[in-house]
Amino acid sequence: MNGFRDEAVLILAVALSLVLIGIGDGPLSHATLRVVALAFHPPRATVGWIDEGRALRREYSRIAGRLANAEQQLTRHQELRAENRRLRRVLDFCDRKPSALVAARVIALQGAPRSGDLTMIINKGARVGIRVGMAVITPDGFVGRIAIANDFSSAVEPLFSRQLAVSAYDLQTRVVGIARWFDGARISLDNVPLHCEVAVGDTIATSGLGARYPRGVRIGVVDRVQAHDYELFRKIDVTPSVEFNRIEEVLVVLSIDPEVESLVFDETGQTLLPSRQP
After folding, report:
1. CATH superfamily assigned to domain 96-276
2. Which run of H or of E encompasses 181?
3. What's residue 53's pLDDT?
4. Predicted model pTM
5. Where are the domains of the chain?
6. Alpha carbon 168 to chain centroid distance?
7. Which secondary-structure segment (H or E) carries 55?
8. Cα end-to-end span (Å), the chain
């Protein structure tokens, strides 16, 4: 029986040799050799395959680690580019500043923009001249006022607060009203009589009345106007120009230049520009 098995193995080996001679030196030849090796030396071939599998896993782990590191570097690069764009806007605005400004970074948010109890914490305080009541703005428009000024930090009461009301006016019709948080992410312009014209798309800005805030800082754009004969005032909804849940840097207005009448906008209504009195 053993002799028959040896003859069968010999015949199989000869047949495989002829096949290898026929297919030459290629991938199929190498695969066939692996099969022969596994048939005649199964333990050694199996160990070789296991070693190669381990090597492939190590190589995969190395490549995966390098890919993860590259993705982190790309994310960091994108974040730095976004921060650079924001800071360039702030610096450009400061170069054309109508008053003394201090730049600060938002380090915390308390509450939610839609709840009416939002508070922002910034990383500058009384040590750099910040005082309670000072206006807080960005290149996009009006943010709020300083509510608490500590030595090295301050709390900002934004326009999305029930406690804050700002004298405002329509840049197109010059109608004056009171801007305050209304509901959700909306601002209302109150105390506008029925006979006063305010249209959808008009830009609303701070009026400067009372000398508490600079005049002409953009607040938002009118998106709805309602007027009823049985009411004394129009109902005016304003979409804020500042996205309060995305603010990262702000400017605190330390003092207003008496030669500057207001902050006005270019023809697109987007860019804050200083406007000096004649």
Report:
1. Rod shape-determining protein MreC, domain 2 (2.40.10.350)
2. strand 176-183
3. 72
4. 0.60
5. 96-276
6. 28
7. helix 42-95
8. 119
